[in-house]
Amino acid sequence: MSPLSFVPLIIGSALPMPAQDATDRAISMEVAEASDHVTVVLKGHSSIDQKVAYELVLEGASTSRHTGRTSLSAGEESVLSTMRMSAAQPWCISATVTEADGTTYEYSEGTCD
Hints:
This protein is an all-beta fold and 113 residues long. It is built from no helices and eight strands. A hairpin with a 3-residue loop joins β4 (50-59) and β5 (63-72). It starts with 8 loop residues before the first strand and ends with a strand.
């Protein structure tokens, strides 16, 4: 893969969610891997006004965390977090999201336990 090419990946849920599919989620995670680094972006895009909480964890040679709570406006996309780490293997990126109605889901990418 060329260092300048980024391929965003929408990661599926690791937790079962019978009443909600990925397109209805208020937050999505995009991961792009280059030859020497990995970039992750959490984006908010709720169909309703609501408060959400999230935790983003990047694990590799070291561990980085970003925890946040925010209000999302219906129909407006926003970047909640952008983080970058070395692509040295192994690495794991995970995000846990809780929406206003209590719905919780998780995204993960890489070599995660």
